[in-house]
DNA sequence: CTGAAAGCGCTAACAA
DNA sequence: TTGTTAGCGCTTTCAG
């Protein structure tokens, strides 16, 4: 039986190794390594022989082995909430671009807003020895990452801060953005404004609610309990919240939507109504311009880029205390936020 | 100097290994391995001692080493065009879910519609020894993957077929979908219909154009050269194409948009016009329902899921000849496609 | 039930 | 310029 055929089945579908190439080219193992990695110190003639052997054998360097030896994987992990959410696509892409510029690959996974799954994913990535980790937290306690960070896994949190540990974070100004949005509605004459947001355990949800309350308070407006609804962002729940706030003797005249999922459903829910209801949403949405939806825009790509750049700066050995970077948001008036309250109100 | 401190710097930020755990627990290396992997044959007492050592040292198994030994990486690669495109988000997420169900992680990268970058990425993933590869081709020649596939990297193409090699592919019915869309416009009275699509080297672009031509021919309608425009899908180019087709003595009365990027720009370009122009777009878009945009919907998530399932079936050792799976598309009438031509036409 | 030894494919260090 | 040796941290094999 031939040498090659005797190899154990588990060997990556029996791919040739540097040893095989060396044998074929009649050179030493290290010479093959030199050629493969473009190191100096190989005669053109030797190099050619090695190259031929590589071609004919279909050799490709096994990076698993390389990684084991070098101690760096040239890959970063990204744990986000849902790759299918239009907010995370551009963010993810931006991280990828930065990673690529640094010669690293991106491994990413969705937590589906489940803290356990977030942890499972993040730790799996650590076990793979990613050089760095970018996390959009689903959970509120990240002490589980402390040993990993101490052991050298650079970690940056995005969109939401880490819970119970001190770590880098890149955030949008949820509080300020939402305060500005609500102030905008107030400036257009509204007094009864509803807030529909994500689950209260999500940092951005409570921050945006805080912004809402701040704007109301600054205008000396009381907030009734029935005007605030936090919870999952599935269409049913949001639709019910909208309906509830618009019913009764004293309905709200305007709505502030806490994120893109809420905005989309709110727009649909409001579409069929007799009297127009003012709306401002957090996050920009594709085609919102055509629908005239006023939004507080945040730059998802900038969020990802900033976080990734910070990560690679850490990987390059820059030592600074952990810091939070907060990116500004922009109010984009497009019509829905400028609808005045009905005269009767 | 202590043992630990003497370790070379490159060792993953000096993380403890099984050897360290073994020393600490006063057991053999293999016993640690058994505990870590939940293998049978360890006394509860020994197990407890090992667990304690693991905790106190903050040990986490190094999967790089494991992979090297086992020959399987439990990861799959996904090469797509642009993670930021709303079409690829759900596709990517679907692949991820299937991978997760099989205990695998997802490494993904964007080719930015550049064939060289596609190849570079795909081969980098092969070097990492991903168990399988899912590729949304940017290029038209995938012979470069042949050695990898022969060497055992299961590969499935999605959205577009592989070029010049025989391989599995999961596609949407671009031809049929676009033929149905154009036939729909014809049924609503249009005779002069424009087609704006992606670059001609992209398979789906030409297939959709073919569907357009087929529908026109079936209705015995001639197609003027100026009614067809293929090219990059950036807003400027598309906007110019729209303007051109709607100018002159005999403008088109309806447009068929070849993909979601084109549709979005076309809708914007048509928004300001005096006379409404009929429009059908390939791909559904968020909020298209509210804007009344008639589309040929394809199921991006199903595309990803189907491809990933096929991939894992191959990884499980199922041997079948490569096949193409074509998923049906759905015409969703919402108004824009049902606008009749102006009486003058 | 437990552990020692070999080796996965590569790179670093050192010889020749 | 080239080759040899010794690991990287783990799993496999096989012997206690």
Automatic annotation (TrEMBL), chains A, B:
PROSITE patterns: HTH_LACI_1 (PS00356), HTH_LACI_2 (PS50932)
GO terms, molecular function: DNA binding
Keyword Cytoplasm recorded: no
Keywords: DNA-binding, Transcription, Transcription regulation
Domain HTH lacI-type: 16-70
Signal peptide: none
InterPro entries: HTH_LacI (IPR000843), LacI/GalR-like_sensor (IPR046335), Lambda_DNA-bd_dom_sf (IPR010982), Peripla_BP_I (IPR028082)
Protein name as catalogued: LacI family DNA-binding transcriptional regulator
Organism: Streptomyces lateritius
